[in-house]
Design a protein that fits this description.
The complex is a heterodimer. Chain A is of the alpha/beta class. Chain A has nine helices and twelve strands. Chain B is mostly helical. In chain B, α5 packs parallel to α7. Chain B is globular and about 65 Å long. Classes of the chains: A alpha/beta, B mainly alpha.
Amino acid sequence: MTSLAFVDVSVKYGSSIAVQGFTDTVRPGEWLCLIGPNGAGKSSLLRSAAGLVKHEGGILVDGSPLHLRTSRRRAALVAHVPQSPAMPDDMTATEYVLLGRNPYVGYFGNESKHDRMMVARVIERLDLEEFAERRLGTLSGGERQRLVIARALAQEAPIMLLDEPTSALDIGHQQQALELVDSLRREHGFTVVSAMHDLTLAGLYSDRLALLHQGHCVATGPAEQVLKAETLSEFYGVSVTVLHEPDGTVVVVPRRTVPLA
Amino acid sequence: MLAEQVRDSERSWWVPVACIMLAVAFLFGAMVGPAGPAWWRVPAELLNHLPFIHIKTGATELQSTVLWQIRMPRVVLAGIVGSMLSIAGASYQGVFRNPLVDPYLLGVAAGAGLGATVIIVAGRASSSSWPVDPLPIAAFVGGLIAVMITYSVGAAFGAAKSSATLVLAGVAVTSLATAIQTFMLQRNTDVVRQVYSWILGRLSTATWHDVRLVLPYVVVSTGVLLWHRRLLDVLRVGDDEAQSLGARVDRIRLTVVIAATLGTAAVVSVSGLIGFVGIVVPHLVRLLAGSSYRRILPLTVLLGAAFLIVADIPGRILSDPAETPIGVVTAFLGAPFFIIVLRSRQGASR
């Protein structure tokens, strides 16, 4: 199990600041969920940990700085699932999952028997056998999302970064995808950082929430502390009712601000 | 696991098939043409050139010479040029993630032509004592500069969003390079003949010397490109994701572009302008063997060679003895094919 620490991380695009001085430590096996309105810096923060954007400050994996690693080693530590992954229509599902083995294959090398076996196991674990030979273009949104998670799983990285993993899915597939991530996390002891828009789901699956606003972290803690009607109205500008279920689930329900005619 | 192995063996039967197609094209290319031995004597004549084999074929001395010194270099050179242009086309399509590009549409050929013109104008006679012929090197530098300009212009104006932008940038670079070349030729009319004979190519008058000249470049370039076939598959998911999977995208792209351009410039310097090969062959291979570059690259090498050897044959018989340039034949085949590709892409994007 592996920890991920952000130390005063800032991300800038030209003169605009996406993330400003973000500091947090994600404990080994913990699921941290980044929430916040569009443009708050959630994706930028995830992209900085995946090594896709330049950033200031330190990102530490088990205490050692990530930027000192080679790109392949970094990919073996951190798997990143982007918001809208590029999925070439004519690539087969197995070929796609096999890409996750790239960090373990040399520049001029080829996937070993072990790599292929690993991919076959991942496909089996996620019940994707029937799609294994299908082309990505013929798959549904839910099937594609499972494949993306399969690719990240094949990467065997102890840290998983998920950027809006459920944004393209219906409510049933949202639940399926998140249940899958959660069970994989418990199986393998992954550390997960995700960005999510659905606040109820965010609170339901993660251990801890971090609320970002204009690049700053304005609140962090368990769902019942962060998901408060007044906090959400301040930073999202929404009017909501926050309900607490007996089992501890925090439910965020939007309210109409214009009364029914 | 088992399914995986089964699948691989299922698809790998294309390699032997492609080898057979290449062998057939090669023999056919050697058999057809004026003044050689009768076609059924050709295989035995060719075998005679292997060590320790002496077969009485009944062909005259002159016929053997025609076969070995005139026809064979031409067939071999056509094969080398065809496979190089095809694998370069497929590789450019891979690194630019754009199925519409080929060495010609990217401006590589025009850039190489300009580089060659510059060196010829600057006085090739004075450099005849150089240890290495500077012409292929000048062509390579010109081609490389052209493809770099095309790519940076295309990238600056959103080539990532639309594949047409990169092609349009290539068209602009081609026009510019051609214009500069025309201007230089107008100022130096004494080298026009030399430059045009270079541009039109020497496939019809190919010698073993030409084969020896391009072979080292083509072997190195093809080797480097084949080595990158797995990484080209990784690049298919886009720069960001490839990078998050640990691939060093910029380095891969630069290496592949340099290798493909080096090979293209070298073959262009002996074959002249032969368009559409780099787009037709990779697309045919995709139709036959799927879209993974692991299969596409080796197959384009084999089928590209077969394609150009066969495409060279009509030129020899159509208007014998006056030759139809091979570029005309490939354009006849390639232009309609390009339109079909465009059409099918439009259908797919709907």
